Amino acid sequence: MVNMNNVLTKVVAAAGKDGAMKEDETMYDAMFANAGILDRKQYNTFVREMQINSVILNDAAFKRMTRESEVTSGARIEGRVLQDGRLKESRTTKSDLKEAKIGFGSAELNAKKLKAKTSILDDDLDDNIEGTQFESTLQSMMGAAMGEDLAAIAVFGDTDLDYDEEPLFHTFDGWAKQATTTLKSSELGSTNAEKAFNVHEDTIEALFDALIAAVPARVRQSNLMNRFNIYVPFEVEDAYRNLLKSRNTALGDSMQVGDAPLKYKRWNVKYAPELDAEDCKALDNTATCLGGFPDLMRWGVYKDISMEMERKAGDEQTNFWYRMKGDAGLEVFSSLIVGKLTLEELAEIQDEAKA
Fold first, then answer.
1. Secondary structure letter of residue 84 according to DSSP
2. Which residues pair with 308 in a beta bridge?
3. Could you tell me which of 248, 210, 257 has the C-alpha nearest to residue 230?
4. How far is CA 220 from CA 22, 72, 164, 247, in A?
5. What pLDDT is recorded for position 223?
6. What distance in Å separates the CA atoms of residue 18 and residue 31, rounded to the nearest whole number?
7. Which residues of 170-194 are buried (b: 16+ CB within 10 A; e: fewer)?
């Protein structure tokens, strides 16, 4: 049985008078000495674990927030800058130049509190082959699980959702809510005919073309365009692979037996597990695809992440409490394009592409 008094004694001995960690000190020993707050190394490790199972979080720009409210911004030159250096019909140098405009985009991050809890029975810990090293495994497991949830909120968060029905997704507005352009398939009854796409008549490539075409000209003309990515749920990725496979070419063969990264024209098409989650689809009963620029998709975690143990001796178990604060924002709202399919289309496109 785990004796928490022995653990606490070990913490005091391991930390010493100056609180410095010793080599045999466990992760949780150090946390006891620091009120449960992860130090910088532990914080960085935990954030990496959060990104492991999330394609979008791993691609997007991360910010370690030093304040609970921060504005991250980028700057770029807009329009033409060069001008004729002489006055008209004169050899006199022109000094009255039109100034180049600097365009600023900004993403406002307001960290929202997020919590999690798990527990381990003493018998389970005693029987576990990893023994006390399971503490580190637990950190990795919870970090990955919390990252999956944070990625889901970062995409689908909507403060207009009912708190009682969606207490997680209600936390903050995600990227899809912040985006100014949402394209719908023709089966969703899009009122904007020129932006509707039909994956039945024109294959799944119609969706990709619609996402690309909707990128604003000022963004498309920048050097960011080579960073444009298309994020899709599994059925869309599989439908595209089936479509390529059906063409009876060397590329089609590679789709059958290889694992080469997918591209449409010159842009990456990536399967994103967060877009595949059933509870995310159930929010509006649609399937969501994203076309955007990771550099402009910001997410942040406030500087303090805490994990604390709570001993329940009578129940012979230990509770683990996790607390963090995070948010997600777009630097340029028009830079992210959302594409929506019906769930029926999602179920049908894989077979249609096999022809």
1. -
2. 321
3. 210
4. 53, 21, 41, 30
5. 76
6. 15
7. bbbbbbbbbbebbbbbbbeebeeee
Both tokens assigned to 120: 């381990």
Instruction: State the sign of the Cα–Cα–Cα–Cα dihedral 277, 278, 281, 286.
Output: positive
Q: Which tokens belong to 278?
A: 């059933």
The answer to whether 178 and 307 have CB atoms below 8 angstroms apart is no
Give pLDDT tens digits along the chain (355 positions). 334 334 333 333 333 334 333 444 555 555 555 557 877 788 888 888 888 889 999 999 998 888 888 877 655 555 666 666 667 777 777 666 676 554 545 678 888 999 999 888 888 877 776 666 777 788 888 889 999 999 999 999 999 999 999 999 999 999 999 999 999 998 887 666 556 899 999 999 999 999 999 998 878 877 788 899 999 999 999 999 888 887 776 655 566 656 778 999 999 999 999 999 999 999 999 999 999 999 899 999 987 888 888 889 998 888 889 999 999 999 888 999 999 999 999 989 877 766 5
Residue located via tokens 């969501």 = 288
CA–CA separation, 152 vs 326, rounded Å?
Answer: 13
Contact 189, 153 (CB under 8 A): no
Instruction: Label the pairing between strands 306-312 and 69-78.
Output: unpaired
Q: Rounded to whole angstroms, how far apart are CA atoms 96 and 83? A: 10
- Taking the C-alpha atoms of residue 241 and residue 236, their distance in angstroms, rounded to an integer, is 9
The secondary structure of 187-232 as a DSSP string is GGT-S-GGG-B-HHHH-THHHHHHHHHTS-HHHHTSGGGGG-EEEE
Contacts of 3 (CB under 8 A, 6+ apart): none
Phi, psi of 125 (to 5 degrees): -70, -40
Compute the distance between CA of residue 262 and CA of residue 239 in angstroms, rounded to an integer.
12
Helix (H, G, I), strand (E, B) or coil at 344: helix
Number of helices and strands (H, E) in the chain? 14, 13
